[in-house]
Amino acid sequence: MTSIANDAAAGWFSPQNRKETIAGLLFIAPALIGFAVFVAGPMAATVVLSLMKYDLFSNPSFVGLANFEAMLDDRRLWKVLGNTAFFAVFAVAGNVGLGVVLAVLLNRNMSKTVQYAYRAAYFFPSLVGLIFVAVIWQFLFQRDIGVINYYLGLVGIEPVRWLSSARNALWSVIILDIWKNVGFAMLIATAGLQSISKDYYDAARVDGSSSLRTFWQITLPLLSPTILFLLTMNTIGAFKVFESIVVLTNGGPGDASRSLVMYIYEQGFKSFNMGYASAISLLLLTITVIVTAIQFALSKRWAFYE
Amino acid sequence: MADLYLEGVTKSYGAATVIRGIELQIPFGEFVVFVGPSGCGKSTLLRMIAGLEPISGGVIRIGGTVANLLEPAERGVAMVFQSYALYPHMTAYKNMAFGLKIAGLDKGEIDQRVTRAARMLQIEELLHRIPKDMSGGQRQRVAIGRSIVREPRLFLFDEPLSNLDAALRVQTRIEIAKLHKIVDATIIYVTHDQVEAMTLADRIVVLNQGRIEQVGTPLELYRTPANLFVASFIGSPKMNFFPVTLEREGLARGPLGTAIPAPAGPTGRATLGVRPESLVLCEPDQAFLSARLQFEEHLGEHRLIYAQTGDGIELIAKEPDGPSLAEGSILHFRFAPESAHFFGPDGNRLGLSTKGTH
Ligand SMILES: Nc1ncnc2c1ncn2[C@@H]1O[C@H](COP(=O)(O)OP(=O)(O)OP(=O)(O)O)[C@@H](O)[C@H]1O
Ligand SMILES: [Mg+2]
Fold this sequence. Notes:
The complex is a heterodimer.
Chain A: H1 4-10, H2 18-49, E1 52-53, E2 61-62, H3 66-73, H4 75-105, H5 112-127, H6 130-140, H7 147-154, H8 169-194, H9 198-206, H10 211-239, H11 243-248, H12 260-270, H13 274-302
Antiparallel strand pairs in A: 1-2
Chain B: E1 2-13, E2 16-27, E3 31-35, H1 42-50, E4 57-62, E5 65-66, E6 77-80, H2 92-102, H3 107-121, H4 136-149, E7 154-158, H5 166-182, E8 186-190, H6 194-200, E9 203-208, E10 211-216, H7 218-223, H8 228-233, E11 240-247, E12 251-253, E13 259-261, E14 268-274, E15 280-281, E16 289-298, E17 302-309, E18 314-320, E19 330-334, E20 341-343
Parallel strand pairs in B: 3-8, 3-9, 6-7, 7-8
Antiparallel strand pairs in B: 1-2, 1-4, 4-5, 9-10, 11-12, 11-14, 12-13, 14-20, 15-19, 16-17, 16-19, 17-18
Helix pairs in contact in B: 2-3, 2-4, 3-4
Adenosine-5'-triphosphate binds at residues 13, 16, 18, 36, 38-44, 192 of chain B.
Membrane topology (chain A): Multi-pass membrane protein
Family (chain A): Belongs to the binding-protein-dependent transport system permease family.
Subcellular location (chain A): Cell membrane
């Protein structure tokens, strides 16, 4: 076999390399085709459509940046964008924060049976389909016959309008989201915790560090790469929130709990403004990229990589 | 008066007992080394003294107070871990200052102690680096620095040199010996390297399967090992062992029928131990035993001769180096009677301390 340097100098499709190159391309073809059909194609189509007026029935017509200009005056868009950001902030904070805390609490010395029982219990909701979960919570959240209000009633709290009040609806969605996803964050954080050497904790004990101080000054810094990963994944997920809201409140009351993706769906498939829906999709993509980039940039200041 | 007392200290993990009734007293300022084969419980015992491992039974007293339930930080101990366990996200300075800050020392005092330790260990230029950016030897120094600044009454080292290369190990060993002269504290040092044990220790504690086999100065252990285990564990190359028969008149008879003086006492089968450096090549008529040469290792100043007796017993002799011996030749050995060690069938040393020539 010739050396790699020679192969490179000769070019991929030179006579001596052609066979290997073709074999290589064949190997990656399935993944490449999948990517082209399901990712690159739709993305390109979205970009093109965002410059069109298209109602699914008549032929698309080119409108330039009109769809983007329309966004500026669209009060509903800003409302759902605000909802989505609100949801993202609290759902991400809740999932990651609570996930890490649960992971730490369940990573201490305790009976293995209890430990695994708790971990399984917290992780279980991640395994169940979101629609199932949302349907069940829809019942739990009911004002008059819901279980939650029943128990609140037992301790003397007036029934709460979980889903029908504009003030509470989004919070209810956040509660459901945390219940559903915190187990996954806990699992990832547990893996991160278990990769931290026990010796650091022994050293901290010899140094006289309290468990709280050890958590803040040893565990959290060493877990920071895991936390950054969780923040990023959860943020990307949160911006796409859709099914749970559809089942719980269908975006209501009014637009009080409508998310950006719901709005895109509504614009595209109910109002048949495919061009406008595509433009908003690009907005969502842009926001996600920017937020993720900011998280990574800020993480240079707090995340510690060994 | 001793400063550290271990009284009947035991440790069990479930049904498995790993430390079995340790009795030990260590005077203040002594350098004590725990040695023993892997898994004998050295680290466990050290961690029990540190307070990192709860003890299952017995009493640990440090400086006159029962320490069984005290947290490590309350025991006035500092520990250097085998992995160093430097906090990876903190600079050397912060690593060293962490415990002091918790202890509530003011900034000036912390700074003074860290700077002093850094100067002593020659790590001043490392103070603002994180462990990732240091070599193994430098991390080792910072880890020692972290233990020094706390000014403990008791230093605990768990195999601190095992991650260093050979040259650095020798150098650091010497520095730890110097450190002991400077600091006013007791040191307990765990190793399975008997050279470290012999060179550093005021007293060595030989552990085996959670029990103390013998406690003594390096020379005591070398000259009068209390049993077969210590005899074979201390000394390199290992002591040679031969089966002998003890006869009534305090005589032992070896393989060639040669009689040698043995401690008076019970008769019967016993084990004779002779260190490689005590075996001397000689003429056949003076020989205690004969063996066929297997191979030699020339080390310049001396050579190691590996040979096998007619009964299939392997032996090692350490001789002044010289021209190679003929391959497969029969060699004859004798030894000075006072350099012989006798062990009874139970493995314990027979007779009083037969002071060897070495
Ligand atoms: N958490 C534990 N649970 C059960 N057994 C343990 C535990 N920790 C240690 N042991 C056992 O205790 C014994 C002593 O272990 P220890 O680590 O003290 O050995 P050591 O002498 O330090 O060995 P090494 O030289 O290899 O470091 C071993 O047999 C080990 O398997
Ligand atoms: Mg050990």
